[in-house]
Amino acid sequence: MKSLIDTRRVARRARLSNIASVTGLLALLASVLVPLFWPGYMAFAYGLMVAGLGVSMMGIYFANRWVKKPRPEVSLDAALKSLSGAHRLYHYPSSLPCDHLLLTPNGLVVLETVNLGSRFTYKNGRWREMIGIGRALRYIVEEHLGDPFKSATNAAQLLEERVDQMLEGKSRVPVRAVVVFTHPAAQIDVENPPVPACMLEKLKKHVQIQGPRLEQAAYEQVASYLDGLI
């Protein structure tokens, strides 16, 4: 399997998250020092405190997304590394509705990742998260679960339309979606999911698309298109 990633995008967002964190902390420090040296500027100090807190929390939130390990792309690469050379795994392709995408000899698989270390259940069409003390303390500065099934389904539909337009109807490329929980501390209990949901160790069997292989010309055209987005 070949893995392709937009390293500049990851590095840029990681750098911005770190800048935001440091800027917020400096603003908070300034909000403490200003009243000591310029007592008449208390209103300005309060403004700095509010702004610093907001910017710092935003920086921590994005640092959890773009800096904190384990990184989802690293986990996906490790889980799928034994696939054949005809498989191409794309991370953060520009202008596509998904962060991770696998091109297989039989079609495309959208990989909707959840990188949170909690226990998740899906029953009767609803997600629930059992939040421990650690997760509760970090909740405001970490991503939330949302509805990964909806996100994955919408991304797969939009991607299928994009690929159909690119191929001008000359060939059909099946697109399916898989929700994968990449954090090592995650636990899931899923009943009757609309699309497959699994932990990393089960991902390999869920990315297999049944059916005929893609025509070589279509496969190469899709690969070339996706390569250009990295």
Give a brief outline of the structure:
47% of the residues lie in helices and 20% in strands.
Strand order, sheet with most strands:
1-2-3-4-7-9
Element string (H = helix, E = strand): EHHHEEEEEHHEEEHH
Overall outline: elongated
- Sequence stretches where pLDDT stays below 50 over 5 or more residues: none
User: Would you tell me the overall average pLDDT?
Assistant: 89
Helix share bin: 40-55%
- Total domains: 2
Rg from Cα = 21 Å
Q: Please tally the helical runs, counting DSSP H or I stretches of 4 or more residues.
A: 7
What's the number of extended β-strand segments?
Answer: 9
The biggest beta sheet, please?
A: 6 strands, mixed
* Euclidean distance between termini CA atoms: 16 Å
Q: Work out the strand percent.
A: 15-25%
Describe this structure in words.
It is a single chain. 47% of the residues lie in helices and 20% in strands. The chain is α/β, with parallel strands linked by helices and 230 residues long. It has two domains: 2-66; 72-227, no CATH class. Strand 5 (119-123) and strand 6 form a beta hairpin. It starts with a strand and ends with a helix.
Descriptors for this entry?
9 strands, 20% strand, six-stranded mixed β-sheet, elongated, 2 domains, 47% helix, 7 helices, alpha/beta, three-stranded mixed β-sheet, 230 residues
What is the topology?
Elements lengths: L1 E4 L1 H31 L4 H25 L5 H9 L7 E4 L8 E5 L2 E8 L4 E5 L2 E5 L2 H6 L9 H20 L7 E7 L5 E4 L6 E3 L3 H4 L9 H12 L3
Parallel strand pairs: 1-2, 4-7, 5-8, 7-9
Antiparallel strand pairs: 2-3, 3-4, 5-6
